[in-house]
Amino acid sequence: MPSKPAPIKKKPGKKVEKAPEPAPKPEPAPEPSPVVEVPPVVEVPPVAEAPAAEAPGAPAEAAAPAVEGEAPAAPPAEGGEVAPADAEAGEAPEPEEPKAPSPPPPPPKGKPPVTYPAPKIGFFEPSSAEPTSVPLDLFVEDKNDTSVTIIWSQPEVVGPSGLDGYAIEVCKDGTEDWKAVSEDLQKSCRCVIKNQTTGDRLKIRVVAVNAGGRSPPVALPEAVVVKEVADRPKVRLPRFLRQRYVVNVGDKINLTIPFSGKPKPAVSWTKNGQPLERGKVNIRSTDRDSILFIRAAERDDSGVYEMCVKVDDFEDKATVTLQIVELPGPPASVKIVDTWGFNAALEWTAPKDNGNTDITGYTVQKADKKTGDWFTVMEHYHRLNATVSDLIMGNTYKFQVFSENKCGISEEAAVTKDEAKILKQGIEYKATEFQEHDFTEAPKFTTSLANRATTVGYSTKLLCSVRGYPKPKIEWLKNQMIIGDDPKFRQICVQGICSLEIRKPVTFDGGVYTCRAKNHHGEVTVSCKLEVRQPVVADAEKK
Questions:
Q1: Domain at 441-533, CATH from 2.60.40.10, 3.40.50.1000, 3.40.50.2300, 1.10.287.1770
Q2: Which of 77, 152, 233, 403 could disulfide-pair with 309, CB 3.0 to 4.6 Å?
Q3: What percent of the chain has pLDDT over 90?
Q4: Which residues have CB under 8 Å from 495's CB, separation 6+?
Q5: For the segment 79-94, what is each residue's pLDDT rounded down to a tens digit?
Q6: With the C-alpha atoms ordered 64, 70, 71, 77, is the resulting torsion angle positive or negative?
Q7: Are 453 and 509 in contact (CB under 8 A)?
Q8: Over 90: is that where the pLDDT of 414 sits?
């Protein structure tokens, strides 16, 4: 009994749309392969066994697109069975083996058979889409013995159809045999080109692809050598050279700038973008540093010097700004603008030669015509006009002005041609009268004498203080008797401090002592009592 035909399965979750009626074709379609009907007892073979899939030069996923106006054929269902059309489509055709498409035309000579995904018809029509603009800023990020890493920026104009990706193409230097690195489009803006031969020189370009096609390519300016760079070049500019380096005219310049890199970097110097003149500037480079040497600096040596170290496609640069300065010239002119009273007003103009640096100030001097000696009246003055004051009446003056910059004061000065004469005027000076203060004063004791007691044989001293103007005369009295020049007593009066020393007193020296001070404004006295005691003798000593 014959077996029943296998039921045709339907893939769950998917609905196959009805194919529209074919439109009239301008050209005859390629002749299809013969169609083999599937007998009811034989299962439909999978699509992978179709003869067209083994066509040389065409990948499995690169099936020939449908003719414009026709819908693509429905893919085979899982398990190698053909999915039926929708129930609403009318008559369901008998299951058939899918027709093999005609093979695509052979690719051009020298180019790999690379195909890119077809644009999405449902969103953008290929006829209305436009290619993107050229990608930007392509350069080599890194490289080694077998690979080169490149990086770039996306195009400025992408278009409404979006960007599908980038195609990276390479060819050897000296040829135009461009080959794609990968069959798939590159999504990111960075790509590592692997499996290259050490020592090859490669030309590299990048093309942006979208629904409108390929953009113009952007290529590296020079071919890249596939070679390992052990150490990238790096200039290590000293800190004091990162700012403007100022040197006086005639000084020696010896600048050492270290760098690193393997293999040995190639060192080059430029001045203001032009090659150096070896006659005036000497350059000596070693494996680790480069020396710029000038024996005697001149103002023409000022400028921006650029040092560049390069290893293959990698380089590093550093700039050094030299400023050779000298003393400035004098002001262009100076004149006396006005003279009044004891003052003279001056004006001058900036010097024509500033010494290749900014003017920091001016120095103004004056000279009396009688003596001819110059005296400085202003230093580090920043304005172009000044007023000189405190001139002497009746004298005639000349003035001169020096320029100043960071090197110092100009060797010469600009001198006024005219003279400033300070005229005498009818001014009479009358001194202010002040009433003299009367300092006269009668004597007055500020410290009185104090009563004292002493022992026989022990000297003692009486003290008091007095003031008065004119200086009062001091006298000492004992029991109302003037002591006079008795050698037993010593009288001293210094700065108003009066003292009376009694040397080794006895019982007879006790009594009332008086100090008297007098001048022609008056007289004053002060007194005290002095007691002289016998020493106490113990009873044992008496016996």
A1: 2.60.40.10
A2: 233
A3: 44
A4: none
A5: 444 344 343 433 444 5
A6: negative
A7: no
A8: yes
Segment 308-342, tens digit of pLDDT: 998 877 889 999 999 999 999 999 999 999 998 88
Is the preceding peptide bond at 263 cis, omega within 30 degrees of 0?
yes
Question: Has domain 334-421 been given CATH number 2.60.40.10?
Answer: yes
Q: Are strands 361-368 and 396-405 parallel, antiparallel or unpaired?
A: antiparallel
Angstrom CA distances, 273 to 269, 306, 319, 446, stand at 9, 8, 11, 94
Tens of pLDDT along 205-222? Answer: 999 999 888 899 999 988
Going by pLDDT thresholds of 50, 70 and 90, the confidence category of residue 543 is low
Pick from 114-128, 178-192, 430-444, 515-529: least confident: 114-128
- For residue 315, what is the enclosing H or E element? strand 314-325
3-state secondary structure 267-334: EEEEECCEECCCCCCEEEECCCEEEEEECCCCHHHCEEEEEEEEECCEEEEEEEEEEEECCCCCECCE
How big, in percent rounded to 5, are the helix, strand and coil portions of the chain?
A: 5, 40, 55
Pairing of strands 136-143, 179-180: unpaired
Give me the residue spans of the domains in the chain: 44-52+67-103, 136-225, 231-325, 334-421, 441-533
Q: How far apart are CA 193 and CA 453, in angstroms?
A: 121
pLDDT at residue 28 in the model: 45
Tokens 């794609």 identify what position?
180
pLDDT band of residue 43 (cuts 50, 70, 90) is very low
**Fold of the domain spanning 231-325:** Immunoglobulin-like (2.60.40)
Residue 232 CB burial class (10 angstroms; 0-12, 13-18, ≥19): middle
Cα torsion 188, 194, 200, 203 to 10°: value is -20
> Residue 409 carries which side chain, given as an amino acid letter?
I
Q: What is the CATH architecture of 136-225?
A: Sandwich (2.60)
**Are 422 and 416 a contacting pair, CB within 8 Å?**
no
